[in-house]
Design a protein that fits this description.
It contains 13 helices and 14 strands. It has about 375 residues and is an alpha/beta fold. The protein has two domains: about 120 residues, Aspartate Aminotransferase, domain 1 (Alpha-Beta Complex), CATH 3.90.1150; about 240 residues, Aspartate Aminotransferase, domain 2. The strands form four sheets. Strands 2-10-9-8-5-3-4 form a seven-stranded mixed sheet, with helices on both faces. A hairpin with a 4-residue loop joins β6 and β7. α10 runs antiparallel to α13. The longest helix is centred in the last third of the chain and has 21 residues. The two termini are about 35 Å apart. Bound molecules: pyridoxal-5'-phosphate (PLP). The site of pyridoxal-5'-phosphate (PLP) has 11 residues, from α3. The site of pyridoxal-5'-phosphate has 11 residues, from α3.
Length: about 375
Amino acid sequence: MKRKYLMTPGPSPVPAFVRESLSREIMHHRTDEFREILQHAHEGLKYVFCTKNPVLIFSSSGTGAMEATVSSLFSPGDKVISIAGGKFGQRWTELAKAYQLDVVEMTIDWGNAPDPERLKSLLEQHAAVKGVLTTLCETSTGTVYDVEALAKTARKAGALIVVDAVSGLGQDKLPTDEWGVDAVVSGSQKGLMLPPGLAFVSVNANAQTAMKNAQCSRYYLNLQKALASYAKSDTPFTPAVSLVVGLKEALRTMQEERMESRWVRFETMAAATRKAAQALGLKLFSSRPSASLTAIRAPEGIKSTDIVRTLRKNYGISIAAGQGDVKEKIFRIAHMGWINEQDLMMTFSLLEKVLRSLGHTFENGVSLACLQEVLYGK
Ligand SMILES: *Cc1c(COP(=O)(O)O)cnc(C)c1O
């Protein structure tokens, strides 16, 4: 059995201290013992989401929380603007359409970030927009959006601003309350160092008001039900008990490190990754690269899927190819959650070997010298 290394933008590696907590005996969820763990998790989530408002927990993948948000905040026929610059922005569009919202699509070229001025003119053009659906880190392109400016623009027009931060939370800066974001969605398997299976939504006063009037059909994925239980340190249905136990442990390390330090540390890892890739003669895909992952163009004549496959097959290191139209054109290296500086050293050292075997030429070790300098100083 070979050791495996996850350098993918979800799932990402789970530290031993979290895995150990996941293997504890299952407790009943309607007990004081579990309620206390849930309360800790609620407090930890508030800290990590940078909000004083409730952060609701769902037993689902990230998309479940996106679905709960769309169906719980809006009514059929409500006008929303969906900002789509990649796979996950498109998911907002598809979800909103599935719930019969009136969707104005603000599509942008993959690899670019939305221009807040364009959002402003769309909001002027369309009367009574109820919400703007957008993304913190668009994982399919490795792009971080200017959520602060987008939120300000949406708020001025009286629209709710809803942000998918499934991959970005923990690395890309998101002071939810300070920037006035009404609902932030995240998931367990990216920046939060947990296996897949939990999803989260923060809801401020505006979102809570919208929930009272929203008419979309919904049952299980339901922010209102979750909020009513939250007030009693409870969940409406059986939660993924073990994952909540693990969540408490994972959040504690994030609280110890502090979000401000994490934002700086991951941005340094991202900067080092970009520099290392460029030193290998490779081009970056995003014009506004995220702190959570780096999307890199494969060299001319080499398919990114071949790079990904060889790295996994020969060395057990998983990185991700592209999605959609750029599937074979780009590869993506994550620096999120538990992934650290040493993981990047190892990944680039063997990425160099793989690229060379596929015919790409560069000075041996050049990417490692870059990483050493940026990550550990001269
Ligand atoms: C991973 C991810 C999701 C959710 O995907 P699931 O597979 O449902 O967990 C949503 N948005 C972004 C930006 C993501 O990276």
